[in-house]
Amino acid sequence: xxxAIRVIPCLDVDHGRVVxxxxxxxxxxxxxxxxxxxxYDAAGADEVTFLDVSASVEGRGTMLEVVRRTAETxxxxxxxxxxxxxxxxxxxxxxAGADKVGVNTAAIYDPSLIEDIAKRFGSQVIVLSLxxxxxxxxxxxxxxxxxxKSEGLEAIGxxxxxxxxxxxxxxxxxxxxDGTKAGFDLELIARVREVVDIPIIASGxxxxxxxxxPAIHAGADAVLAASVFHFGEVTIAEVKKALLNAGLPVRV
Amino acid sequence: xxxxxxxxxxxxxLRSAERALAVTGAEVVVTTDLERAASADGLVVPGVGxxxxxxxxxxxxxxxxxxxxxxxxxxxxxxxxxxAQIMFDSGDEHGVVTKGLGLxxxxxxxxxxxxxxxxxxxxxxxxxxSELFEGVPADARAYxxxxxxxxxxxxxxxxxxxxxxxxxxxxxxxxxxxxxxAVAQFHPEKSAxxxxxxxxxxxxxxxx
Lengths: 252, 208
Hints:
The structure holds two protein chains of two kinds.
Chain A: E1 6-14, E2 17-18, H1 33-42, E3 48-52, H2 57-73, E4 78-81, H3 87-96, E5 100-103, H4 105-109, H5 112-121, E6 126-134, E7 140-144, E8 149-154, H6 155-165, E9 169-174, H7 186-195, E10 200-203, H8 212-217, E11 222-225, H9 227-230, H10 236-245
Parallel strand pairs in A: 1-3, 1-11, 3-4, 4-5, 5-6, 6-9, 9-10, 10-11
Antiparallel strand pairs in A: 1-2, 6-7, 7-8
Chain B: E1 3-7, H1 15-23, E2 27-31, H2 34-39, E3 42-45, H3 51-61, H4 64-72, E4 77-80, H5 82-85, E5 88-93, E6 96-99, E7 104-110, E8 118-123, E9 141-146, E10 148-150, H6 154-159, E11 161-167, E12 170-178, E13 181-184, H7 192-205
């Protein structure tokens, strides 16, 4: 047997509340991240990711309380990303009950942050997020601010560098595919797989269950999606069935 | 009530271990207090990150003798992840060998696989005589996240009940039980229903 392909729902959280609409049956409070995380756990999710989109200090404080409550009730791995800028930010999140921490923009401006976090807590806590866009020249570039701002950084080389610096895995989000529901950017996944050995979580573009197995065949180890899960367009179980039908190992 | 201490000798997520153990009905305390660690019915030694850093944390806390004394007296200790690794003879990271607590024979070395860290839910090959895995289905999966592990060896087989797991072509020690000492390379506190069975089994063995 082999390690199972991980299926991961991602929840955007602002001031302790889930931002995008979530259409899940039998929820008392569809805006409570803790209740949603528990529902996804029950639905067979292999991990849960919270992306903190709060822009204020109070919002971040509320997020920590959400992480604490989640860690107390949901016994699958929890990743928390959004606004992580320092080793002490990581420490606070881990102590609250996160298992892994998503690092994105801050590492672009200060790559040594990856090394510092890895040295203190181990590589396994770092999920390095890459928001990637295709350029008119056919290359891939790293973006920030939800894909609106180019950082003038070539994405494949950056992926290789973050792995060398000590990232534990890469959350590879295609800004071009995101929201299209036309499937993952398979070329992007394959290109990053060529240069790193650490796990890749593919994100962006999933519209139906059949979109997921090709991402794994292209080189990803895990798949992450948000709205298609939240709106019930695709269930975790359907994705796992599609993976299983494609001959891939899943946790059932 | 059965008392369990989760030893706090550094940082990381101890909340999940605390809560997952509390669900089994144990009275759980997360503490740096070695007297409580010595007197509790069960002691959990967690650990994430580097072997050398965890051993340094154990040494700073002065916890090594407490752990060894408990095991010698037949008082249960459960090591999790790097907290499991440090129970072995040594850890080899990037060619630097660090001495472990030496309570189990074997060396912790880098997994001989391409995709490292080994991250995710993998199956377990647990022997029927294991008390820790009693009631765990044959095809059950537990959550792993690690780059290093112990390779099964005759010395270990001779003294412990060994559960293995395989990542790519690398078969490694997923758990070992030797008298009062149990270790798990995976995270039972993050392994949903399967982890709950294992933790309940362990807590059930306390005060046995």
